[in-house]
């Protein structure tokens, strides 16, 4: 199941009209070998996967988009629905298949597929079912696109990014988890809302686990280049630590609130993943808090663990980790977050 039949073959006897519709010009040369054809594959066409696919299309990030899912009818329906919007979108070839061969030659593979939690099921059992699912997803992606960058969005994202790294055999710079990129966006929004400024003028990071043990880096927050906490101290404006923690708590709980209201999250993670894709494929070299192999950073050293750190992203994937100043308390919280993830990983037997 791939692209729907092309109208170019609607001539008599299946004549390919595209060959006679245009007259070729004379003395042509082949296309420049430096011209790059960009392909993105999205694995999983649920609410999150389709929000990502739709955002990739509207932002003109790929020449070719491949969709993969285990449910053929829904998959074909999603493909056709997107193809029917072709007149309103930048030209992108859209393919879909239950067979991973459709992803061949991808520059970026975004994995959103994951098992849903059953009532009464333990988090560990859910994680083990997701690991089993990844064993059927990651190896074929690595086989068909050995030079691709893997972006994991499925939750729990930090542990599954580690699983994807192990199963793919890829170098760690080419395996990235969406991590706290979205958490940090929520954080920036809440701070901007408090100060009545544009969120794009707020520099603020949530790092560590994409979950309850995440760490808000209050010491490095700035608005318009002005360090917020230092400014308050110099102006002798008192602030309460509890008030800061309430904002962080709101960040952690915001996803749960959206899920309780509409049943799932989709649009924000769609924009977040597309934002990461743009930085990677356009070699933007922007800083994003994403899940990376954290060993050796900020005193993290107990086994291989992926968690979110401010990382520079470009065409080679993770280009480096920013040396952000952390307070002793923030550094300890980050190490505690790493320990939390490591303890979960140790039960997987990988």
TrEMBL record:
Signal peptide range equals: none
Q: What top-tier enzyme class does this entry carry?
A: oxidoreductase
- By its UniProt entry, which Gene3D superfamilies does this protein fall under? Lactate dehydrogenase/glycoside hydrolase, family 4, C-terminal, NAD(P)-binding Rossmann-like Domain
Name all Lactate/malate dehydrogenase C-terminal domain ranges.
Answer: 180-342
* EC number annotated for this UniProt entry: 1.1.1.27
Which InterPro entries does the annotation name?
L-lactate/malate_DH, L-lactate_DH, L-lactate_DH_AS, Lactate/malate_DH_C, Lactate/malate_DH_N, Lactate_DH/Glyco_Ohase_4_C, NAD(P)-bd_dom_sf
* Record-level GO cellular component terms: cytoplasm
Report the pathway entry. Fermentation; pyruvate fermentation to lactate; (S)-lactate from pyruvate: step 1/1
UniProt-annotated catalytic positions = 210
Q: Where does NAD(+) bind?
A: 44-49, 69, 130, 153-155
Q: Which domain of life is it from?
A: Eukaryota
Keywords, alphabetical: NAD, Oxidoreductase
Concerning Pfam families, the annotation shows: Ldh_1_C (PF02866), Ldh_1_N (PF00056)
Which GO BP terms apply? lactate metabolic process
Name the family the entry cites.
Belongs to the LDH/MDH superfamily. LDH family.
Name by which UniProt lists this protein? L-lactate dehydrogenase
């Amino acid at each position: 199941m791939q692209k729907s039949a092309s109208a170019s073959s609607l001539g008599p006897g299946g004549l390919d009209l595209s060959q006679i519709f245009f007259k070729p010009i004379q003395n042509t040369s082949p296309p420049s070998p430096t011209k790059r054809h960009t392909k993105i594959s999205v694995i999983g066409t649920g609410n999150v996967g389709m929000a990502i696919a739709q955002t990739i299309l509207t932002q003109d990030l790929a020449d070719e988009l491949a969709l993969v899912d285990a449910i053929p009818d829904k998959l074909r329906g999603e493909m056709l629905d997107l193809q029917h919007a072709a007149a309103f979108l930048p030209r992108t070839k859209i393919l879909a298949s239950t067979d991973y061969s459709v992803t061949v030659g991808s520059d970026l593979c975004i994995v959103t597929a994951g098992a849903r939690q059953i009532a009464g099921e333990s988090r560990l059992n859910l994680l083990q079912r997701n690991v089993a699912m990844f064993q059927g997803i990651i190896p074929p992606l690595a086989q068909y696109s050995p030079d691709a960058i893997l972006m994991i969005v499925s939750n729990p994202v930090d542990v599954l990014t580690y699983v994807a790294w192990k199963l793919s055999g890829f170098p760690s710079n080419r395996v990235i988890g969406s991590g706290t990129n979205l958490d940090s966006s929520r954080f920036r929004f809440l701070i901007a809302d408090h100060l009545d400024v544009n969120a794009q003028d707020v520099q603020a990071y949530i790092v560590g686990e994409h979950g309850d043990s995440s760490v808000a880096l209050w010491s490095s927050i700035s608005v318009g280049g002005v360090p917020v906490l230092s400014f308050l101290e110099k102006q002798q404006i008192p602030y309460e630590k509890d008030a800061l923690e309430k904002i962080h708590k709101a960040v952690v709980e915001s996803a749960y609130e959206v899920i309780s209201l509409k049943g799932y999250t989709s649009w924000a993670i769609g924009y977040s993943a597309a934002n990461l894709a743009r930085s990677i494929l356009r070699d933007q070299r922007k800083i994003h808090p994403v899940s990376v192999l954290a060993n050796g950073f900020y005193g993290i050293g107990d086994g291989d663990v992926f968690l979110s750190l401010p990382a520079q992203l470009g065409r080679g994937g993770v280009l480096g980790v920013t040396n952000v100043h952390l307070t002793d308390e923030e550094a300890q919280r980050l190490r505690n977050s790493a320990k939390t993830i490591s303890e979960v990983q140790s039960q997987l037997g990988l």
